[in-house]
Amino acid sequence: MADDTSRDRRNTKGRQRNRGQSSGQRQYSANAPSQRKRSADPARLTAFQILQAVTTEDAYANLILPTRIRRNKLDRQDAAFATELTYGTLRSLGTYDAILGKCVDRPIKKLDKPVLDALRLGVHQLLNMRVPDHAALDTTVALVRAQVGAGPSGLVNAVLRKVTQHTMDEWLEQLAPGTSDTDLSIRYAHPTWILRAIKQSLVTHGRNPDDFHRVLEANNIAPELNLIALPGIGDLEPVLEYGAESSTLAPDAAVFSGGDAGRIPGVADGSVRVQDIGSQLTARALAGARDVRQGEVWLDMSAGPGGKAAVLASLAQIQGATLQANDVSEHRTKLVQQALRVVDENVWTTSVAEGQALGDDPANAQRFDRILLDAPCTGLGALRRRPESRWRRTPQDLATLTQLQSQLLDAAVAMLKPGGLLAYVTCSPQIAETTLQVSDVMKRHPEVQLLDSATAIQSVAKHHDAESMLRRDTITSGEDDSNMVQLWPDQHRTDAMFFALLTR
């Protein structure tokens, strides 16, 4: 019969061996050591690499994931898995960290970042993907063993086994049973300041505040891939034959679910682009609001990385106009040039300058017939597509950005010809970044007037009848006779784009 000292399991130095003792019964892997995975599969490795780049380098997942998918030579199925694993994990980071906080014996911020990222990937597979528990456990442990080391793999195995003791609903009921902002923040994976900003935005733009939960849920749904065949350049038919569906909202547009965008016909050569349909409509509305006179000169003030600029340039090519695409960053300007490469080089030019400096240049005074100001903003309307931004932005960013937006609007007014058109666009519904900016610029510049922005959007849409999602009563900001547009992910299946069309 074993005595107490044998059960105590102390080594010769008097140190206690705790392995297998914390839960009363030692937990063994389902596989023998020789059967355990010792390398990461390509899809999970890709997701891990993206999370590491986001958490350690402030990278943007939507910009680096396509490149990494191709570099790691993922097939279509693995590319879809890696995409869902990456975006799903980033979207729910706050919720997963709250769950892990109950399963780790130390503050999770003290975990090494690679270990924490691997745990987050494991939690998403266990609680929000149709991956069997044993597969999620084995593959995550293998990923850590291969990428971090054998030591941390034991910790990851133990922590994820604790996660499996509850379903997602059970975890949420335990961690966030109430309706306080703190509980809603955990339940819907939005920082509390963003929750409050969305609440305020709904009221400001004339929506029922009870729709609050619908917007939060829409922000957490994996968005469809939106595509545009550049007008006069791209061909939508091969895209539809590949499996995409024609958009009901915008011409030359399609929606696609899953897979690597780089394999879609036309994307590699740039004639077909990935771009949110809300963004497509705002660029089209500026170009189509009035008949274009031959020789018009257009400006995209903040063009990087080039999505709206490509749409504007292709429309300028058709209508006999030219486009100057400007950005403050040389790196982003190179991305713009890449986006514009399929358009006749005589139609467009690029420049690198701060928007305020551009407006101060006497050579640009009242020079442009149409100006797109897609202003730098908090991005609260694009949380579906840029999931890391909800954890990266802070309330302090708002003050800096709104000041910049005001300065850029003043510069745009200085460069706009009398009778010209200025489109002010943000991917945020925040009142300080949207309606207040428009009302303030008109106070500062009495010569500026607001045009019927809703009609401008509807005139370039594919359908805008009584049955369309783009009915006037759903897209106007505020009352039905409002002249500003606010789109919403839950109503329109687009980013929460704001659009106001102004003239001088």
TrEMBL record:
S-adenosyl-L-methionine binds at S302, A303, G304, P305, G306, G307, K308, D327, D374. The keyword Transmembrane helix does not apply. The keyword Cell inner membrane does not apply. Residues 1-42 are annotated as: Disordered. Keywords: Methyltransferase, RNA-binding, S-adenosyl-L-methionine, Transferase. The active site is at C427. Residues 1-11 have a biased composition (Basic and acidic residues). Residues 19-29 have a biased composition (Low complexity). Residues 201-504 form the SAM-dependent MTase RsmB/NOP-type domain. PANTHER family: NOP2 YEAST -RELATED NOL1/NOP2/FMU SUN DOMAIN-CONTAINING, RIBOSOMAL RNA SMALL SUBUNIT METHYLTRANSFERASE B-RELATED. Belongs to the class I-like SAM-binding methyltransferase superfamily. RsmB/NOP family. This is Transcription antitermination factor NusB.
